[in-house]
């Protein structure tokens, strides 16, 4: 009597993958968190035009929000943790969606035309530029790690002036150019990201799409002109 061979189903061992809608939702929500942060941060950055004292006071206020009810730098660290979690989730979802997209196309890139090509094609490169700039920016303006930071960097916790650190950093042409390029990448990323977020959240009506285009465009222009003006002002001597 011969033993019969049976085939074990492989469906039970198949790796579960997050549904596309969940990944897109994560991308949209975390992207909006970062876009909102960049816009709020923009208003803080523009205080440099009203003098070093006002800018330093703003930087000090960020560390004292809610004190003494909330521990020193408590709100600041809560914001940092939220942004870090959002960034990790955003990058992870982006990588998984890119992998799924390439698997579905068999590794062949989809061809785009018109404005769709100009914006959608550059979402990945602009995202990588922003990620690299974020690391540089933290080493420069927050941690003071050389050579990212200028030699005379002094931390605010040691009595240093954030305004002086900003001017010293952007007085270096390569740092000013890197800052301006990053703001250009941020503007492109936000402009197209607003429309993607609306689509991924299921709001596909023509009116909503138009609003998303305008909101994304206005936010992108504000980020680009507002932030990129600072290194230009430093290099031209308007800020010193």
UniProtKB/TrEMBL annotation:
<feature type="transmembrane region" description="Helical">
    <location>
        <begin position="21"/>
        <end position="43"/>
    </location>
</feature>
<dbReference type="InterPro" id="IPR011138">
    <property type="entry name" value="Cytochrome_b-558"/>
</dbReference>
<feature type="transmembrane region" description="Helical">
    <location>
        <begin position="118"/>
        <end position="139"/>
    </location>
</feature>
<feature type="transmembrane region" description="Helical">
    <location>
        <begin position="77"/>
        <end position="98"/>
    </location>
</feature>
<dbReference type="InterPro" id="IPR034804">
    <property type="entry name" value="SQR/QFR_C/D"/>
</dbReference>
<dbReference type="InterPro" id="IPR000701">
    <property type="entry name" value="SuccDH_FuR_B_TM-su"/>
</dbReference>
<keyword id="KW-0472">Membrane</keyword>
<feature type="transmembrane region" description="Helical">
    <location>
        <begin position="176"/>
        <end position="199"/>
    </location>
</feature>
<keyword id="KW-0479">Metal-binding</keyword>
<keyword id="KW-1133">Transmembrane helix</keyword>
<dbReference type="Pfam" id="PF01127">
    <property type="entry name" value="Sdh_cyt"/>
</dbReference>
<feature type="transmembrane region" description="Helical">
    <location>
        <begin position="211"/>
        <end position="234"/>
    </location>
</feature>
<protein>
    <submittedName>
        <fullName>Succinate dehydrogenase cytochrome b subunit</fullName>
    </submittedName>
</protein>
<dbReference type="GO" id="GO:0016020">
    <property type="term" value="C:membrane"/>
</dbReference>
<keyword id="KW-0349">Heme</keyword>
<keyword id="KW-0408">Iron</keyword>
<keyword id="KW-0812">Transmembrane</keyword>
């Amino acid at each position: 009597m011969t033993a019969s061979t049976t085939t074990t189903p492989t469906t039970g061992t198949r790796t579960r993958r997050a549904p596309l809608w969940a990944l897109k939702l994560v991308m949209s929500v975390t992207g909006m968190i970062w876009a909102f942060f960049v816009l709020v941060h923009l208003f803080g950055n523009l205080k440099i035009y009203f003098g070093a004292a006002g800018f330093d006071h703003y930087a000090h206020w960020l560390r004292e929000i809610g004190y003494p009810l909330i521990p020193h730098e408590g709100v600041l660290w809560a914001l940092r943790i939220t942004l870090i979690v959002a960034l990790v989730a955003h990058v992870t979802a982006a990588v998984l969606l890119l992998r799924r997209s390439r698997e579905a196309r068999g590794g062949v890139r989809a061809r785009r035309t018109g404005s769709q090509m100009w914006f959608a094609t550059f979402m990945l490169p602009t995202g990588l530029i922003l990620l690299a700039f974020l690391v540089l920016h933290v080493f420069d303006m927050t941690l003071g790690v050389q050579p990212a930071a200028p030699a005379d960097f002094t931390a605010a916790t040691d009595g240093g002036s954030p305004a002086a650190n900003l001017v010293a950093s952007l007085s270096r042409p390569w740092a000013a150019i890197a800052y301006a390029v990053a703001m250009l990448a941020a503007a492109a990323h936000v402009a197209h990201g607003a429309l993607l977020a609306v689509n991924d959240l299921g709001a596909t009506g023509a009116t909503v799409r138009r609003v998303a285009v305008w909101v994304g465009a206005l936010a992108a222009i504000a980020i680009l002109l507002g932030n990129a003006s600072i290194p230009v002002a430093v290099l031209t001597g308007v800020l010193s």
